[in-house]
Amino acid sequence: MSLHNKLRLFLLFFLGLLATAFFISFSVKAQGCPATDWDCQVAELQREYDARKDAHEKNKTDLETYKKQLASFNARLASLDRQFKETEKEIKVREEDLGDQEELLSARLREMYKREREFNILTLLLSSKSVSDFSQGLALRRTAAQQDWQIITSISQKLVTLKNDKESLKKNQASLSSLKAQASKQVEFLEGEVEKTEGFFAKIKAKQKELLAMKEGGFSTSVGDVPLADDPASRPDYNPGFSPAFAAFSFGAPHRKGMSQYGAYGRAKSGQSAEEILRAYYGGVELKKDYSTGINITVQGYGTVDIETYVKRIYEMPTSWGDKGGFEALKAQAVAARSYALAYTNNGAGSICATESCQVYKPANKGGKWDEAVNATRGWVLVAGGKPFSAWYASTAGGYTYSYSHNGHTTPGLWDTSNGRSGWTSQAYEKVAESPWFYKAWYKTRSAQTCGRSHPWLTETEFADIVNAALIYSNGGDVSGIFPTDRCLYDQEGWSKDKMAAEASKHGGPVAKINNVEVFYSNDGYTSKVYIDTDKGRKEFTGEEFKHVFNLRAPGAISLKSALFNIMQK
């Protein structure tokens, strides 16, 4: 078999393997689900996913290898193409040479024909002087005839070979074009399927992001405009009525940056002044006490007021604290609110919203101790880089506040206690202030939706299901089904517990029994590790991994609001 034929067979075999490995149709016919039939639509989405999953995982795993193979394949095609072009040039040269030889062949044939017609053996005999001369003349004529036939035969064979080579070249060039087209289609198909399936998974990730936003993101609140969040069912001493039971408790919420309002209250009750409170949370930023009070603030939906009137209408901290040892906290809050508003509006050049997304504003002075605190701090503004500093604050940081930067100044990250980290859970200023959000298990939305649950405690089966989801997530498995199964908050139904267990079996699971849970914390105010002893051995997760999966899979509105959290078992 010629080298070309061997190479051609190799190329066809290679393409056949590629077609077998990758040519899987992913199209799923629409079932014509009504727009409001979510069960039908979710089922259809699941069918589509199942049809894609295995092939897509194969594509992702083999794509780089395929690209390398394809590069080698294309290099071989290019080499063969060059060989064909060289052969084409050679044939052209041979054609030119044989053109001259064809003329010689014709001349030879005419000469032979002429000699044969004119030759007469009797004439040769009569013209010979002897028998020896006759024999020699006859031999010479025979030799000349043989030479002519050899030349004629050689040229004829070359002409036939040339014709065959030209036809073969033409066929091979057509085959090469076909192979290139097949390879191109194979590349286009695979890239298209990868892009299409990646787009599908991107939609799944987007849905998960939306669910996380509902459970943990978007929760931005302060103390003053919402009822106190103390809920007996959210406390660690609540009895769910079954055992074993598991609950996830958050330390603080939400962003944990800047001033903790309950922490400021606890500090004030502990004897700290407003200036000491501000310095604790915002560090060495300048406190300018004679900042202009003639600046106007435009509040979206309410018009424009001067900065001091604006601050008197901020509802971010209970006025009652001023009568309970927290007046200095009110003063610190007034400074933070004033500084934040000036920074947000670029010193009054822009507008500010009237909700907790900015600062809660109402079109009437709050009065009482709050007005006293605003008047006592008139013109006090935190300044960094010559401009008002964006003084963030929130209800409760859970004992640790994160640092952040603005206008070139960075606030400290600190354990918000009288004794550093060692006093975190017992001496935190937020505990002194009795913050109901210091250590809380969340199972309600802001609108008090509970999805039919009266407490945040999970059964062993429910918690093991979350652990199985965490195994899949932490090991890079298929996460498309990590949604709650109840579809209460979000209209995307997750896998059943059995399906989750089946997937977890690929990653060291499935877990069914929980023997113990251990949580470890970093020095920077977040949960670093979660260790869970199970019937399938000890499982380890980072705090970030576990929080992510917990908020995706936990039923109803049960969620973690903070990266600093604990898992309780009873």
Question: What does this entry look like structurally?
Answer:
Residues about 1-30 and about 35-40 have low confidence and may be disordered. About 50% of the residues lie in helices and about 10% in strands. The longest helix is centred in the N-terminal third of the chain and has 85 residues, at about 130-215. It has helices at about 5-20, 40-120, 120-125, 130-215, 260-270, 275-280, 305-310, 325-345, 370-375, 425, 430, 460-475, 495-505, 545-555, and strands spanning about 245-250, 260, 285-290, 295-300, 305, 350, 380-385, 385-390, 395, 400, 405, 410, 415, 460, 515-520, 525-535, 535-540, 565-570. The two termini are about 75 Å apart. The strands form seven sheets. Strands 14-1-18 form a three-stranded antiparallel beta sheet, with helices on one face. Helix 2 packs antiparallel against helix 4 and helix 3 packs across helix 4 (about 130-215). It has three domains: about 5-215, no CATH class; about 230-245 and about 440-570, no CATH class; about 260-430, no CATH class. It has 14 helices and 18 strands. The chain is mostly helical and about 575 residues long.
Q: Strand pairing plus helix content: what structural class?
A: mainly alpha
Share of helix, binned: 40-55%
Strand content: 5-15%
Q: Which spans have pLDDT < 50 for at least 5 consecutive residues?
A: 1-31, 35-39
Mean pLDDT: 80
Total domain units: 3
What's the helix count? Answer: 14
Biggest sheet strand order reads 14-1-18
**Rg (CA only):** 43 Å
